[in-house]
Amino acid sequence: NTEFKILHGSWIYHFIGADLHQASVLSTELLEIANQIGDDALLVEANRVHGQTLLYQGEFAESQLHIKSALDHHNPQRHSLHAVRYGLDPKVCCVSYWSHNLLYLGQLKQAIEVSDQAVVEANRLGHPYTKTFAHALASFLHQHTENRIKTADMAAAAIDVARVNKFQFWDRQQTIFQIWAGNETWADEHSVGLLK
């Protein structure tokens, strides 16, 4: 659907630009289109982006509903090209965000377990961007819990894949997490220079 693709691109622009109000408007429109058409692949993506937007707006319980809906509509066999089309495996993305919602809702133990599931699934799939994403979101989660060892481990795994695939954003961002974790080997002159 051409309209869906155009709105999705616009959503990415506004979401990455931190214009969450406009991202919310666009993700709501994406959801309406997906519901009208009734296509499972569109429903997966629309619910994912709407749930993701709601998470960043602090609407954790409502975000969970949309993330669950995305997961309910997801069929790995039918949606095998989803990561190619949208750049990221929807299950791994949703499970990663699910873990953050759990964390912010005060369910720490569950959040860590769910985050671990996302990392295992990303490693199983082997899709480089999905793998980098899952490890990066896991490092965020562990940084929020002030677990320096797990933060450093997840950030290192994200950096390894990011460097091989030239995902500079993730490489630089996760280097910050390595430095936060106190991993001296990452706080070298080269890494600090990359951050400047």
Q: In brief, what are we looking at here?
A:
The chain is mainly α and 196 residues long.
Describe this structure in words.
- The chain is mainly α.
- Helix content is 80%, strand content 0%.
- It is built from eleven helices and no strands.
- It has helices spanning 2-16, 20-37, 40-56, 60-73, 82-86, 90-104, 108-125, 128-144, 148-165, 168-180, 189-195.
User: Overall 3D geometry?
Assistant: globular
> How many helical stretches?
11
**Ranges with pLDDT <50 over ≥5 residues?**
none
Question: Which class best fits the helix and strand makeup?
Answer: mainly alpha
> What percent strand?
under 5%
Any descriptors?
196 residues; mainly alpha; 11 helices; 0% strand
Fold topology:
Layout: H1 2-16, H2 20-37, H3 40-56, H4 60-73, H5 82-86, H6 90-104, H7 108-125, H8 128-144, H9 148-165, H10 168-180, H11 189-195
